[in-house]
Amino acid sequence: MTAVIRQGQYQGLQHKGVWEYRGVPFAQAPLGERRFKAPEPLPEGKEHYWADQFPLASLQMNNPIMGVNESSQDCLYLNIWRPEGEGPFPVMVWFHGGGYLSGSISQVLYNGAELARTQQVVVVNAAYRLGALGFADFSAVAPELQAVTNAGLRDQVAALEWVAENIVAFSGDPDAVTIFGESAGGFSVCSLLACPAASPLFHGAIVQSGAADFALSHEEANKVASAMVAALPGEGSAAERLQSCSDKDWIRAQNASIKVLVNRGLRDTTPQFAMNFLPVVDGDLLPELPIDAIAAGAARDKRLLAGVCADEYTFFQYGGVLAGQTTMEALREIDDAELLRRFERGLPGHGEAADCYYRDTVTPDPQRTELDRLSAMESDRLFRVPTLRLLDAQANQNPACWGFQFTWPSAPFGVPLGACHVVDIPFVFGVTDTPAGVYFTGGGDDARALSEQVMNVWGRFAHGDAPDWPAWREGRQVQQFGPGDSLVSLLDAQGEALWEAIIPVPATAR
What whole-number distance in Å separates Cα of residue 374 and Cα of residue 346? Predict the structure, then answer.
């Protein structure tokens, strides 16, 4: 089937009840003089294209595990799946994760064919510039560049503008657009909820392992940009070196700059380590911290589904074991004093209180280590508590707000990680029996059945239907997907009290 739009004609691929369009551009390539600028619309055209090749990922380090063996600055593309039939179908626009540094819209875990086919929706995977290309703030260190802030977030808005203009040609309904994403994609969805330019372009949002406080001030972002410029080779001004360096040198300098410690969320109680190319509160595209904007009603007309995985941080805590860089035995040698130091590093001024709380409430898995206590704290710091704040803030503005938690246990290569980060994705996209899906879920009939349940919830939400569990305001409980009780609270009363002093509740959300 050929989709005819202003920029040309795109011939898709048909397979098992789905038409797939790979590598459809939504903006001009951000190369040359456009490298540091906002995305620009494509010109009109009448050429015919075969949309049969997946695009390269945004510039990043190669990562074969994620299927990224090559990347490019020329990265502003979409992959689209539409079911057979007349439509119009609701549209679901996906933003991938990867810490704003890595990932691709073409990863197997994000293949939208099954979600499109079973739920009768159009699935659009939208790419965006990553790392310093997408989220560095060069305004202070290289003002002569006249570089925009939040280029990656502007890419996401441009993708939504393209959907609004063109998705009818792919049998999509531009008046029924749901944005969804996981990890950095979930953080992006939260930023878009607070972004005035994006507001008219979507109608509902699904946040998976996301947060509305992953943003930096100009001052904090300047620290990162300055460290990157200092790591660039060559001579000349900062602008000259940024413009002339090779992709290899760019990545090397970018890697050096992520070692800078910054204050995430415009506060100093939750310092950010190793993931500091984040949206910037610039007073322009992103006028204020997303959670504050949402609490004040920036997204009061949006329906929201938001949640976490029960054991988010085990994926990172034990990543060295999975990679063969360490062993469980070595990690078991970490003593209480070192654990307390790590608690205090992550929660300055609150480490001892947090250490006591997690010592009382967490029983480490016998196959893992005492680091489970730290992992539980980091799961809460990065994901669970920010999700609570998001649900509270949005539910005060719009009762059409629901929470969830995945509890399906993951054991890649036999390493038990519980319901770790990323375990939700194979269920959402119906790919539990693919090699990547089996890695996280184990595959099989039970995983497939849970995937059907999850896809039905996501699909019904996109169609405008309410999930079949109580809305957030009716008891502040979430629906669980996997083993355990059907409805639970995300934190107990003691935990709520501990975290209120660390990640404050926005005044307008109280």
Answer: 10
- CA dist., res. 280 & res. 223, Å (int): 12
d(CA 312, CA 417) in angstroms, rounded, equals 9
Question: Residues 189-215: what's their mean pLDDT?
Answer: 98
The per-residue pLDDT for 35 is 95
Q: Which residues pair with 307 in a beta bridge?
A: 208, 404
- Please name each of the domains of the chain with its CATH number: 2-218+276-301 (3.40.50.1820), 309-509 (3.40.50.1820)
Longest dimension (CA), the chain: 67
Do the Cβ atoms of 66 and 104 come closer than 8 Å?
yes
| Residues annotated as part of the active site | 183, 312, 421
Q: Kindly report the backbone phi and psi dihedral angles of residue 104, in degrees, each rounded to the nearest multiple of 5, phi listed first.
A: -155, 150
pTM for this predicted structure: 0.97
> Can you spell out the DSSP letters for 301-321?
T-EEEEEEETTTTHHHHTHHH
How far apart are alpha carbons 349 and 49 in whole angstroms? 58
Q: What is the pLDDT of residues 290-302, one digit of tens each?
A: 999 999 999 999 9
Taking alpha carbons only, the member of 163, 218, 156 closest to residue 187 is 156
Task: Look at residue 509 in the predicted model and tell me its pLDDT.
Answer: 63
Q: Mind listing the pLDDT tens digit for each residue in 333-364?
A: 999 999 999 999 999 999 999 999 999 999 99
Q: Are 442 and 450 in contact (CB under 8 A)?
A: no
Give CA–CA dist 315/324, Å, rounded: 14
Beta-strand relationship, 401-406 and 478-481: parallel
Whose CA is closest to 422, among 193, 96, 190, 191?
Answer: 96
Tokens, residue 17:
């009840």
